[in-house]
Amino acid sequence: RVIDECFDMGLTIRPPCINRSDFAFTVADGGIIYGLGAVKGVGEAAIGRLLEERGKHGAFRSLTHLCERMDIKKLNKKTLETLIYAGAFDTIEANRGGLFAALPQAFKLAEQHHKNQNVQQGDMFGLFGGDAEVPKETLTIDPAHAWEKREQLEYEKETLGLFLTDHPINAVRQELTAMCSH
């Protein structure tokens, strides 16, 4: 397998990242960055729009920030779910399960943001010319929704075609090494 050969050669393969990955695999900082185009179930057009937005306006700070900046009808829920499964948001939020569970809330916040922009008003208080600024609702990531390691690896395998951040066998590798000579 190509991945095993990379590891044998001492090459680091970094998971896909919405802020660092390009469409194709790239080399940076002495390692290979997984390309967003190689994530199963994410369309080329959606990746193109994401990369274009990132190129014009910089890195995404959060899932909500991404949803607010993108047309969420074109970069749909299924695409974002797949990117979360693949670990593309890990540099922003390592709790993939929590992020996945918060996705409906992120869409709701983004829809409100887009609605406010279209109406050219920040909120109800903006209608009356008041100076009071209402705090913006933020995305809530619940630690209780964190996935077990095995579940996270299964999603990774499903979307990337391989176990990238770890391997299920590593949990018992020491025992296997003691029983097997090769």
Structure in words:
The model is unreliable at 130-134 (pLDDT under 50). The protein is mainly alpha-helical and 182 residues long. The radius of gyration is 20 Å and the shape is globular. It has 7 helices and 3 strands. Helix 3 (63-69) packs parallel to helix 5 (96-119). It has helices at 2-8, 44-57, 63-69, 77-86, 96-119, 149-160, 173-179; strands at residues 12-14, 26-28, 31-33. Strands 1-3-2 form a 3-stranded mixed β-sheet.
Please outline the helices and strands.
Layout: H1 2-8, E1 12-14, E2 26-28, E3 31-33, H2 44-57, H3 63-69, H4 77-86, H5 96-119, H6 149-160, H7 173-179
Parallel strand pairs: 1-3
Antiparallel strand pairs: 2-3
Helix pairs in contact: 3-5, 4-5, 4-6
Q: End-to-end span in angstroms?
A: 18 Å
Q: Percent of residues in beta strands? A: under 5%
Average pLDDT confidence is: 86
Count of individual helical segments: 7
Main sheet attributes: strand count, strand direction, barrel closure:
3 strands, mixed
| Shape call | globular
Output the helix-strand order.
HEEEHHHHHH
Share of helix among residues?
40-55%
Give me the Rg, rounded: 20 Å
| Oligomer designation | single chain
Determine the structural class based on helices, strands and strand pairing.
mainly alpha
How many E strands?
3
Low-confidence stretches: 130-134
* Largest sheet strand order: 1-3-2
Observed structural traits:
182 residues, mainly alpha, 3-stranded mixed beta sheet
